[in-house]
Design goal:
The chain has 278 residues and is an alpha+beta fold. The chain folds into two domains: 109 residues, Homeodomain-like (Arc Repressor Mutant, subunit A); 145 residues, Multidrug-efflux Transporter 1 Regulator Bmrr, Chain A (Alpha-Beta Barrel), CATH 3.20.80.10. It contains ten helices and eleven strands. The strands form two sheets. Strands 1, 4, 5, 6, 7, 8, 9, 10 and 11 form a nine-stranded antiparallel beta sheet that branches. Strand 2 and strand 3 form a beta hairpin. The longest helix has 19 residues. The radius of gyration is 19 Å and the shape is globular.
């Protein structure tokens, strides 16, 4: 599903940026200069989900990622960070994932994970030393991009890229970068509820209704060269194995995939997998 209305994208961006704060429906509607009643109707018409449910789901998904990677924080502290008391957090978490936060954290391991795109397949992680040897810390510049936002299964990205590039082919040049901005961990978030942006870099003079800026900053950058179906397990390895032991914390609640070359015939890519850190 493409989120076409710029106002709804604006509201989603606001929610994602303030998800660890006490954010209400009124806050989002006010930010978009609409009444609560009118804006909630617009949001549901565009996304298929109520604004309240969307905020609640994103909060819970992000808290689950925190449980996984911020192992020095207590479950109570993580719940409080996302606006829950200790008892309310456990109840809400259990309702969404059918497992309590304590058991969820115990179930997170550094050996591997079931591939959500192929549930019969178990993928094993590499060692911390492997990831650490492939990661460099870089300060990335801002990227001015044309983008489209999607809510749906990450496995549909390939098809969506073809359509996206066809729509914006006039902007694509030899030095254009293709960038995926992903907001969810598909091993946690329901596959059809994942949020991601497809982006192409453009020159400063370009004007378009679908322009935005991906902010730069400090990133852990993994130089990936391999098959497309291995991107998922590599990203998760960075989060599950490398990040908790690296001495860094994730800074922004998204990850970037920056393509440098794509061999569609053989499903092989060279790209940077980037995690914002602090």
């Amino acid at each position: 599903m493409i989120i076409k209305k710029s106002l709804i994208n604006k509201s989603i961006e606001y929610i994602l940026q303030h998800i660890d704060e006490e954010i209400s429906i009124e806050d989002v509607a006010n930010y978009c200069n609409f009444s609560k009643y009118h804006f909630t109707r617009m949001f549901k018409a565009e996304t298929g989900i109520s604004l309240y449910s969307f905020i609640k789901r994103v909060k819970m998904d992000q808290s689950a990622v925190s449980l996984k990677v911020e192992k020095d924080k207590t479950i109570t502290d993580i719940g409080i960070n996302y606006g829950y008391s200790s008892s309310n957090y456990s109840s809400a978490f259990s309702k969404q994932y059918s497992i309590c936060p304590v058991e969820f954290r115990k179930s997170m391991n550094s050996t591997g994970v079931v591939n959500p795109f192929c549930p019969s397949e178990y993928n094993y992680f590499k060692s911390f030393e492997h990831y650490d040897g492939h990661i460099i810390i870089e300060n990335l510049n801002d990227f001015k991009v044309i983008y489209e936002r999607y809510i749906g299964d990450y496995s549909e990205i390939g098809v969506n890229w073809y359509s996206f590039m066809e729509r914006y082919k006039d902007y694509i040049k030899p030095d254009t970068l293709l960038i995926e901005k992903s907001y969810n961990d598909p091993s946690i978030t329901q596959l059809d509820k994942c949020i991601y942006d497809l982006c192409i870099t453009v020159d400063e003079h370009v004007q378009s209704e679908t322009l935005t800026t991906i902010k730069g900053g400090k990133f852990a950058v993994y130089r990936f060269s391999g098959y497309i179906y291995d991107i998922f397990i590599t990203f998760l390895g960075i989060f599950n194995v490398w990040l908790p032991r690296s001495g860094y914390r994730r800074d922004e609640r998204y990850a970037l995939g920056i393509y440098h070359s794509i061999d569609r015939k053989n499903s092989h890519v060279n790209m940077d997998l980037c995690v914002a850190i602090k």
